[in-house]
Design a protein that fits this description.
Radius of gyration: 19 Å
Shape: elongated
Oligomer: single chain
Largest sheet: 7 strands, parallel
Number of helices: 10
CATH topology of the largest domain: Rossmann fold
Low-confidence stretches: 60-65
Strand order of the largest sheet: 6-5-4-9-12-14-15
CATH architecture of the largest domain: 3-Layer(aba) Sandwich
Length: about 250
């Protein structure tokens, strides 16, 4: 097993369990104790784990209920997000009734949507503006506006969303693990994502590879409930549980 592959697996195990002992990692990964300790030290130096006596734990910040604002998020991993967005947009057909979640990768989708015969429903303010300017028929949910993500959230938005039935839903996420599934930082946003998925014939979760092995505060969907569109996924366990489309 290559060094990076082994370290990715270590991150996945720690993300799912919260903590892990050196002995368990040596057994699962069939590596020496010295190798595992070097891996843990390297990951700790990168800030990805907390190295403790006899093992490692997930960093406390992994569970904090906060995230960057939309302007910062859209600039991160831009090449990967554009590839994901372009592929996702290509799945939209003339007769689709689409839910487009608020988020940076779903926002980039609007650059690649040229099919103005499809109907869109979104909780993203910027998403709705771009789609309307392109001549698309677009509905925006009513509700509370979250400043950081410019998303419409809350009970009113959730009630509004309940009346729709979608052929396809494109949903963002903050983290993906085998055990916790798809996670996000905010309970109100999680509610919108969950309802959209439940009311869609097929749902896609859009995620660049940095989202794998990350656990955010609130789970909104189990892995098997949605296909994943990503730049790459190194987890064979996740691929066994759901459809994963790698675009790079």
């Amino acid at each position: 097993m290559l060094t990076q592959e082994r370290r990715n697996k270590i991150l996945e195990i720690i993300s799912e369990k919260g903590s892990v002992a050196v002995g368990e990692l040596t057994s699962v990964l069939e590596a020496s104790e010295a190798t595992i300790r070097r891996d843990l030290l390297a990951l700790a130096n990168l800030g990805k784990i907390n190295k403790v006596h006899g093992g490692a734990t997930l960093p406390e910040h992994e569970f904090l209920n906060k995230e960057d604002n939309i302007n910062v998020k859209v600039r991160k991993n831009l090449e990967q997000k554009r590839a994901i967005a372009s592929y996702a947009a290509s799945l939209i057909n003339d007769d689709d009734y689409v839910f487009l979640d608020a988020g940076s990768t779903t926002f980039l989708m609007t650059e690649y949507i040229f099919n103005t015969k499809a109907v869109f429903v979104t909780n993203g303010i910027a998403h709705a503006q771009v789609l309307a300017q392109k001549g698309c028929r677009v509905f925006i949910l009513g509700g509370e506006l979250k400043d950081t993500t410019e998303a419409i959230i809350g009970i009113v938005a959730a009630q509004n969303l309940q009346k729709y039935n979608f052929s396809k839903a494109f949903i963002g996420t903050n983290g993906i693990t085998e055990k916790q599934g798809f996670t996000t930082t905010d309970t109100d946003e999680a509610m919108i994502k969950a309802i959209a998925g439940e009311h869609s014939f097929v749902s896609y979760v859009l995620a660049d590879s940095t989202k794998f092995g990350i656990v955010s505060a609130v789970s909104f969907k189990p892995l098997e409930s949605s296909a994943i569109i990503c730049d790459k996924c190194d987890s064979e366990e996740i691929k066994k549980k759901t459809i994963v489309k790698e675009v790079l």
